[in-house]
Amino acid sequence: MTGGLQTNGKVVIIGGGPAGTACALALQRKAAALGRPLKITVVEGKQFQNEQHYNQCAGVLSPPLPELLEQELGVPFPYHLSRGEITDYVLHAGGGTILLRGEGEPSTALRRVQFDAYMLEQTRQRGIEVLPARAMEIEFHADGVLIYTENRSLRADVVVGAFGLDEGTAALFQRRSNYRPPRALHSIVTKYHPGEAAMAAFGNRIHAFLPHHPHIEFGAVTPKGNHLTINIAGANVDSDLMAYFLQRPDVRAVLPPAPPDQNEQWHFFRGRFPYTQAGHFYGDRYVMIGDAAGLVRTFKGKGVTSAVLTGIRAAETILQHGISRQAFHAHYRAANQDILRDMPYGHLIRFFTIYMGKPWLWKVILQAAEKNEALQRALYNAVSAHAPYREVLRHTLKPAVMLALAQQFIQRERGLHR
């Protein structure tokens, strides 16, 4: 098919998280502007209302997400769900720490399940059908797509995959297309409630850890209003590794003590997030967005923003260019070059952090950063994901930064040989 999807075209979106709802809202809004109304159905098996189901996520939403929601989707950013603003980061690595101060608009910490429920409700309120069911099978035909769900079948001109890293739904597409899901890291998440006074004293900064452990790539402690969210990530993290992380002296030094009358019971939750792009994430009559496409910041960061962005970009391609593989390749892939081109740089930083970032090396880097604002900014952008990784590397390789690092290395070597 050539050209954009025409009046009364049917789109089924599998997944009602940020990517799926952004795509649905963008399709409806942009189709109305073109005078080409569409029939849009979002299929979502989870119940976010009353917090029955969760998408595991640290829940820190940063710019330009508010602008994307309000200007591109006509949806007010849910500041009322805020559990506090994040302005600064503290990086713990190599036995040292450094405070990385943010500039510009702060990020918003909230509970991800409440954000997902909000976005899905905004979708319903605008008259878009939300089907509470799971997709069970998919058939691709020359004239359309047939999606079988738990309670009825749906016919569509194109299907959008917004199912994150759900293995069952990914398997449906693997059987019927060339799609291959992205590789992913695992995460373990828990919560800690130290009390109101302790939370007030903790402040509005995230503590990020590079613990130099063969199985833990990074960890973080994030303030969320009345509690701290603690997470670790790696290829094979589990509850034992989370218990180890919670007992580390540098982590215990950050966590405030619980009230004497509170016996904290740790409840662990498991999640995943991609670090590579998916294989064949588009084809004739299908396109993947968000985590399902692997179109996120490599290593970590801004998953919700990337989900919303890719949902909007898929909607624009469907409406303006069509639903063929050629249309998605020429326009959807091209629209996401900012993400795709940054992935190699993210992999390089991940490789350095895991395999080359020895404790003594990180200590030197942090000591140099204390004296060099450009290196501080590079570390802030790397930890917060506020800037592309290629920009982080570009700032790190500036002559002034390299000189500061060299001077700190020389100082260390002199100290070792005294």
What fold name stands as the CATH topology of the largest domain?
Answer: FAD/NAD(P)-binding domain
The percentage helix is: 25-40%
Overall body shape: globular
Structural class: alpha/beta
Corresponding CATH superfamily of the largest domain: FAD/NAD(P)-binding domain
The DSSP helix count reads 15
Relative strand content: 15-25%
| Unreliable runs | none
Number of strands: 19
Number of domains: 3
* Largest beta-sheet details: 7 strands, mixed
Strand order of the largest sheet: 6-5-14-15-16-13-17
Question: CATH first level of the largest domain: which class?
Answer: Alpha Beta
CATH architecture field of the largest domain: 3-Layer(bba) Sandwich
Span of the ends, CA to CA: 74 Å
Radius of gyration: 23 Å
In round numbers, the mean pLDDT is 91
How does this structure look, described?
This protein has 3 domains: 189 residues, 3-Layer(bba) Sandwich (FAD/NAD(P)-binding domain), CATH 3.50.50; 88 residues; 59 residues, no CATH class. A 7-stranded mixed β-sheet has the order 6-5-14-15-16-13-17, with helices on both faces. The protein has 15 helices and 19 strands. It is globular. By secondary structure, the protein is of the alpha/beta class. 40% of the residues lie in helices and 22% in strands.
